[in-house]
Write a structure and sequence with these properties.
By secondary structure, the chain is of the alpha/beta class. The chain folds into two domains: 276 residues, Glycosidases (TIM Barrel, Alpha-Beta Barrel), CATH 3.20.20; 83 residues, Sandwich (Immunoglobulin-like). The protein is built from twelve helices and 13 strands. Strands 6-7-8-13-10-11 form a six-stranded antiparallel beta sheet. The protein has a three-stranded parallel beta sheet with strand order 1-2-3, with no helix packed on it. Helix 3 packs parallel to helix 4, helix 6 runs antiparallel to helix 7 and helix 6 packs antiparallel against helix 9. The N and C termini lie far apart (72 Å).
């Protein structure tokens, strides 16, 4: 069918302005161009108003899950899709596979813009998208600010605090996918200036924060490069084929620093995998003071305290302010080192992050 893709009198690209979809004052022409314009000459925009195309796409996704055992879908460039069809798609796919993971790529740079695409009609959109979560690009940018920028009232680590404070916009912010980089972006290590302490702090934030962490291959062994062009961040992972000079799949193929990074990420990732407080637990954060950001993840099983020092100098803090979550405990387990430390005063090196499991007094 000619109407399988959107037709225009002459070639027309999208305006790539997601705001035109949600703007109550938007021109209908702007909204139509955003939704129906082509991505480029080689990427035609499919007409999701065509009922035959709708049926094909929905059945195709269901077939792939059934055939290949797919665990979930990352819905690329989600804001460019027809909203009503995507809502219908989500209802039908989830009816077949209630536990399928679904999230939309929405690199839109504001929490409100992100929430607009998520389920629950929480921002007065007028209908339910049935989309459980999105790529939380706003969180990623806030983490970069917390790691790289000097603190201000709304800058630096305070930006991260403020982004988290906007979680009221979502039906369930825990369904958002949090990440530090991907195939379209400069690699995390390069963005933090190859600063190893910042790298560890970013990984600690990623693997202890609410949401579903997404790791891009190779970050765990310090792969780097800026996305200029994109191919530089899509290089082959070293190893895996006969005759490869380097094999980072093996500890002997990694250098000292790469092994340290690998083991650091593995420790945190496995700890999260075995700790329900980090998977489905609640989050409580505190207003940063003197550049130190503290939050807790907790449930009935465990309480975790995460402390990030965003300043360029070592700091020491007292913990009396956090007693509503520490609950009088005197000691904590350092998740990375395995050491038992005292809780009354904490020393945090510059740009470093502590991940601590609170030891209740009745477990001494």
């Amino acid at each position: 069918m000619k109407s399988w893709v959107h037709q225009w009198p002459q070639y027309t690209t999208s305006n790539f302005r997601d705001a035109a979809v949600m703007d109550p004052h938007a021109s209908p022409a702007d909204r139509k161009r955003m939704l129906d314009g082509w991505f480029d000459h080689r990427m035609a925009d499919m007409n999701e108003n065509n009922p035959y195309l709708q049926n094909f796409l929905t059945q195709n996704h269901i077939w792939w899950v059934e055939y290949a055992g797919v665990d979930g879908f990352r819905l690329d460039t989600y804001p460019y899709n027809d909203p009503q069809y995507m809502s219908d798609w989500a209802v039908k796919v989830k009816a077949e596979f209630p536990h399928l993971s679904i999230f939309g790529e929405t690199l839109v740079w504001s929490a409100a813009n992100q929430a607009f695409f998520t389920e629950g009609n929480t921002v007065n959109r007028g209908f339910d998208t049935h989309l459980p979560g999105v790529t939380d690009g706003v969180w990623k940018e806030a983490v970069y600010d917390a790691l790289n920028a000097r603190e201000g009232w709304t800058e630096g680590v305070n930006r991260l605090y403020s982004v988290m404070a906007q979680d009221f916009l979502y039906k369930d912010p825990g369904r958002n996918t949090i990440f530090l980089d991907n195939h379209d972006m400069s690699r995390f290590l390069s963005v933090v200036g190859e600063d190893f302490t910042k790298y560890k702090s970013g990984m600690a934030l990623l693997l202890t924060m609410r949401g579903v962490p997404q790791l891009y291959y190779g970050d765990e062994v310090l792969m780097k490069n800026f996305s200029n062009p994109d191919g530089l961040v899509r290089e082959d992972f070293p190893g895996g084929w006969p005759g490869d000079k380097n094999n980072m799949f093996s500890p002997t193929g990694r250098g000292v620093k790469e092994n340290y990074a690998f083991n650091y990420v593995r420790t945190l990732a496995n700890y999260r995998k075995n700790t329900t407080a980090l998977q489905t637990g609640k989050l409580m954060q505190y207003v940063p003071e003197n550049g130190v950001y503290v939050y807790f993840r907790y449930d009935q099983e465990k309480t975790l305290m995460v402390v990030y020092n965003s300043r360029d100098n070592d700091q020491s803090i007292t913990t009396a302010r956090f007693n509503e979550r520490i609950n009088g405990a005197k000691q904590a387990l350092n998740v990375i080192t395995g050491e038992i430390i005292g809780l009354e005063t904490l020393a945090i090196p510059a740009k470093a992050t502590l991940v601590l499991e609170i030891i209740p007094n009745n477990k001494h």
